[in-house]
Structures are given as structure tokens and as C-alpha cells.
From TrEMBL:
Source species, domain of life: Eukaryota
The name this protein goes by in its record: Glutamine synthetase
GO process terms (BP): biogenic amine metabolic process; glutamine biosynthetic process
Keyword Ligase appears in the UniProt entry: yes
Similarity comment text for this entry: Belongs to the glutamine synthetase family.
PANTHER family assigned: GAMMA-GLUTAMYLPUTRESCINE SYNTHETASE, TYPE-1 GLUTAMINE SYNTHETASE 2
GS catalytic domain sequence ranges: 120-478
GO MF, one annotated term: ATP binding
Pfam family, one: Gln-synt_C
Keywords associated with the record: ATP-binding, Ligase, Nucleotide-binding
Amino acid sequence: MSEPELTPSNVSEILKNDTRVKLAGVDADGMLRGKLVSKKKFLSVVEDGFGFCSVIFGWDMHDRTYFRELGISNKENGYRDILAKPDLTSFRRIPWEDNVPFFLVSFYDPDTKEPLFACPRGLLREALKGPEKEGFRAMAGAEYEFYQFATPNRKASSTAAFLKENPVEALPSLTEGMFGYSLTRPIHNQEYYYGVFDACEQFNCEIEGWHTESGPGVYEAALQFGEAKGMADRANLFKYVVKSIGTKHGITPSFMAKPREGLPGNSGHMHISLVNSDGTNAFYRSEPDPNPPYPDVAHLSDLGRYFLAGILTGLPDIMPMFAPTVNSYKRLVENFWAPVTVSWGLEHRAASIRLITPPTASAKATRLEVRVPGADSNPHFVLAAIIALGWRGVEKKLEIPVPPLSKGEDMGGSGDEGVRLAKNLGAAVATFTRKDSVAREVFGDAFVDHFGGTREHELRLWEEAVTDWEVRRYIETV
């Protein structure tokens, strides 16, 4: 649902019948952190911003402070406030909460007033400056797969309590069996199924396609294509919609990369292209190259080839941004429809990057589909990484480093053409944070040290955890 364009001068009039406003920013894990404020408070901070506790960049997704204190929020600075500024262009109303006004905020350093280096929305804006300076706009589309579980007794918000007393495998799937693209399975939970679709439309994070995927209780949503900055916001808000509507129906959606052993994981594929100022696709080559380096790129422009090369060259170095959790790497294994190498190919779904060009796509739909990210990834970080790496390839005129993935390659097979991507979060973080990492080149030391530190925290918690698998395997036998 489109909302009127807001400015500091008209926002009071547009909110004249409201008494409260909900505000939220995005943390390093891609989670929304926010609050409800009075309209009076909101109007008083709409131009200059307001203080927001920096600890949202000093603790993990369960509010546990990081083992190693990082630069933004720590004992030395007293966990001081950072500056949060409402983004008036993000205005929408929450239809399942009596249409309360909602705004996203971005975070800034309170001293310099510059974008906070770990703010996901700020990082994406910085990445977009390269192509925008040359007159290009980045366009993107997101696809998310996710499992859904029937909360026991369909009591809202009881999943966490249930799992304290029961094994994970006891949590029932919303529907059983493997039935992708089913027209009948959604009818089992029709009110929820259509409720999500309609709420997304009303909340301005529209779904383009919505169907069951192969897996018990698995759905997939393709979000409406648009400019990259807005796409990241809408992708994040899509998860918010699904979780909110799910709660009302006693359903727990899971965007974990691999919630069930032995079944396919949840992807978060991202499509990307650049367009010129007149809207024409800058990745499309109007006349097929009669002598391309590979037949797969005959319809891909020089700009598109450089952009593709940039992503491929930097891909191993930014893996924590695509696969941010310990669980992420349970999805990225051979023969589970997930890419595991630095690879690409024309219409090749086993590759890390699927090239989509004519003749199978129209000229305006020429694009790259980056298939490595999981549904657990932060869409702002994913798009920032794709654009920053791709633009690095353009600026350096990089050559595509590997040939296209051979046709007939096993889905997710390791292949001979490309380097194997990190097999676990520890290896990914080590590559991400090393001194000469491409991540440091494109994002700077401050961001890499901070985000790398947050992932090291995840690793330490995992290393200290005693899992059900270990107890079952060793409790009697060792």
C-alpha cells in the first residue's frame, strides 16, 4: 500500500489522527530493534534524531554481551547512546497492529554524526555510492525459503517454552511430507497463508510469488523487484510480517539455514542488476558478442562481466555476510541444492552465481542471481557485499576468474572449476578478518573488526555448547 511522501514539514499533518509511532533499526544479526513512542516524542526527534542505547551493537541475538567487547558499545564508553534518525521514506502502517505508523531508523556516531560503521542500512548506502556516482541504479530481488512449525496447542509464543522441555525434533511441522508447488497444502492453513500475502501488500513489502517448497511445512516467497536500498528494507520487513502473522496463528516460521537434518536448507537468493539513468539494463549486451571469452556471457555487457568477476573474486572473503551463523554451513554442503564453490554459469542452479540473460530472459531482466546466502542472512549486508564486490570488479576491470560450471555437475557438487567456499563459520571468519582480506578493502577495518568479532562470539558459544547429538552418542559408550 503506497503511503504519501513525508517531509519534516508535513509529517505532523499526515499523523494528525495518530497518538503513537513504532520505530525500529536493524542490528548486526539483521534483527529489528525498536520501540513504541508517543507522537509528540516522534515529532520532536524527526529532524535531529534521538539517543538509542548502543548495546544493540554490543550484544548478540539473545542479549548476551559479546565475550570480547567491540568498538561501538563497551565498558570504556559506558554503553553510551548512539544517534538514531528516522527515515521518513520508510513510512508505512502496521495493518495487524491497528495501522500504527512505522518508521525505520538508521544509526549514526553521536560525535561525528557520520553513519555508524556497523549499521546495516548505512553500510548498504555506502556501497551504493560507487555505482550511483557513475549514474547507475542498483536493482534487486530477494527470494526466501523457510520452514514453519505448528506451535504446540497453537498457543502463541509457546515454542521457546516447549523446547525447554522437549527435543527439537518433537516440534511438529506445519504440514508433513515433501510437496513443492502444491495448490492444496496451503489450504490447510488458508487464513495464515493469505494473511501473510495480504499483510505484505499492505505493509509495502509486496510478494511477487508465494508457494510451498519441497520440505515439510516449507514455503518460498519471491519479493517484488525494486531498487536495492528499498529491497533490503523490504526483505527484512518481510520476515517481520511472517513472524508477526505466524504468532497470531500459533505458527513459528524459521529462517534458520538448516532447521532439519537430512532435508534441504533455507536459501536467501538475491538477484542483482544495474540500470542506466534512463532505466535500461546495463548488464545487457544489445548485440551478442561474436567472440566471447565463454559462450555463457555472449549477452552480458562488459560492465556485467566486470561485476560478475568482482563478486567471484571476493566471494570467499565475505562469507560471514552471506552465511552468518554456525548453522549456515549445515546448508552449504554437497548435493543439497546449495552452492559450495566459487562458481557461475548461464542458467545453472548448481553454481554460486546463476547468470540470467537472453535467450531465456528478456533484455530488461538480465541479471545475476547470487545463490550462496541463506535465509538467515542479513539482507542489508548481503546486498552491500554484492554491490561492493561487484563495483570493485568494475573499477578494477577484473577478469572472470573461473570458467562456467560444467553442465551436468551434481547439484551443489564441489566440481573442479572453483575454489571450495568455507565449510564452517570459523574458517569463514578467519578469511574475512585476515589482514589482506577483500572485505577490509571494500568495507574498512572498523566494520570487519566489529562484525568479525560478533561472529567470533557465535563461535565461542558453539564451542562451549554440549549438543543433544553428543550426549546421545557418548553418554553410555565412552
